[in-house]
Amino acid sequence: MSNFWSIWITVLTIVVIVGCIVILRVMSKNNTGVEEGESMGHSFDGIEELNNPLPKWWSYMFYITIVFGIVYLVMYPGLGNYKGLFGWTSSNQSVRSLDESKAAVEAAKAENRLSQYDREVAHADEKYGPIFAAYLATPLEELVKNEEALKVGGRLFLQNCAQCHGSDARGSKGFPNLTDNAWLYGGELADIKTSLMNGRNGMMPPKGGLPIEDSEIKGLAEYVVKLSGGEHDAALAGQGQASYMKGCFACHGMDGTGNKFMGAPNLTDNAWLYGGSRGAIEESIKYGRAGVMPAWKDILGEEKVHVLTAYVYSLSNK
C-alpha cells in the first residue's frame, strides 16, 4: 500500500472514532433547555415527545465498543501500513508464486511470526496428515473401493478441479469430460495419477506443422467427420484423406485412433474437446490447439493426488 493511502486510511479511521466519541458526549448532555422528563412540546396522534436522556446501558455499550476498536487497531493491523503490536497477518499476501509462498512460510517460521493461514494449514496437516499418509500407503486398486476415501477425493476435486472441469466433472470447451472413457493420455489409474502429478501440456500446431494449404482444410475436416462416423461427402473426404496422409497419421495413427503417449485425440469416437462441428474441426486444423493442466504434485502433494486419482477414476468406472 502506498504512503498516501496508508495515511488516508489512518486519518479517516481516527476521525471516525473521535467523531463517534464527540457525538456520544454531546448527545449525553441536556442542551435543550427543557428539564429531563418534561414535554418537548411535540405530539402526534396522541403520542407526546418527552426529553428523556439516552439509556445508560446503551451509552456504556457504545463506549466499550469504541475502546475495543481502539485496542484492536493498536494490537492488529488495520491502520494503513501499521503492522500492529503482535505482527499478525491473515496470509502472506505479497507472494506471487508457489516458491515465494514456501520461502515466506519458512522465513516466518524462523522469525516465529506465522500468519493465520499458515497456522491453520499447519494444524490441518498435523490433524489430517496421518489419514492421507494411510491413503497413500493403500494401492489405488483398493482405494477406489473405499467410500470414505472417494468422498475425500470428491471434496478435493471441488476445491481444486471443478473450476475447469465443472462440479459434475463433465468439462466444457477446451476442458476434458472426466465422466466418459475418452482419455487423451490414458484412463488407467497409473495414467491418471501421472497426469495429475506432472500436469499435461497438449499442443497441436497450426495445420499440424505440415505443408497443408488452406484450400485443403475443408476436405481434411470432412475426412475427420468420416473417421468419427458422421455423414459426409465421400468425394471431399477422399481429398481430405490425401491431406491426412501428409503427416497427420504420425500423431493420430493411420486409423485415426490417436496416441495416448503423445496426447493425440482419437478421431474415431464422438468425444470432441473443442467441438465436433465442421466449423470447429476446421478451426482446430487451421489454427491449432494448446491446452495446459498444471502439475499438482507441488500444490497438493502426492498424498492428496493419490486420493484424487481414485476419485477421478471412479467417475468413469462406476
TrEMBL record:
Protein name: Cbb3-type cytochrome c oxidase subunit
Pfam families assigned: Cytochrome_CBB3, FixP_N
GO biological process terms held by the UniProt record: oxidative phosphorylation; proton transmembrane transport
PANTHER family, per the entry: CBB3-TYPE CYTOCHROME C OXIDASE SUBUNIT FIXP
GO cellular component annotations of the record: plasma membrane
Gene that produces this protein: ccoP
UniProt binding sites for heme c 2: M204, C248, C251, H252
Entry's localization field: Cell inner membrane
Co-factor binding details: Binds 2 heme C groups per subunit.
Database matches in InterPro entries: CcoP_N (IPR032858), CcoP_N_sf (IPR038414), Cyt_c-like_dom (IPR009056), Cyt_c-like_dom_sf (IPR036909), Cyt_C_IC (IPR008168), Cyt_c_oxidase_cbb3_su3 (IPR004678), Cytochrome_c_Oxidase_Subunit (IPR050597)
Keyword Electron transport: yes
Quaternary structure and partners: Component of the cbb3-type cytochrome c oxidase.
Residue stretches making up the Cytochrome c domain: 148-228, 235-316
Coiled coil residues, start to end: 100-127
Key word Acyltransferase present: no
Annotated heme c 1 binding sites: C161, C164, H165, M293
UniProt keyword terms in alphabetical order: Cell inner membrane, Cell membrane, Coiled coil, Electron transport, Heme, Hydrogen ion transport, Ion transport, Iron, Membrane, Metal-binding, Oxidoreductase, Repeat, Respiratory chain, Transmembrane, Transmembrane helix, Transport
Cofactor(s) essential for the protein: heme c
Pathway(s) the chain acts in: Energy metabolism; oxidative phosphorylation
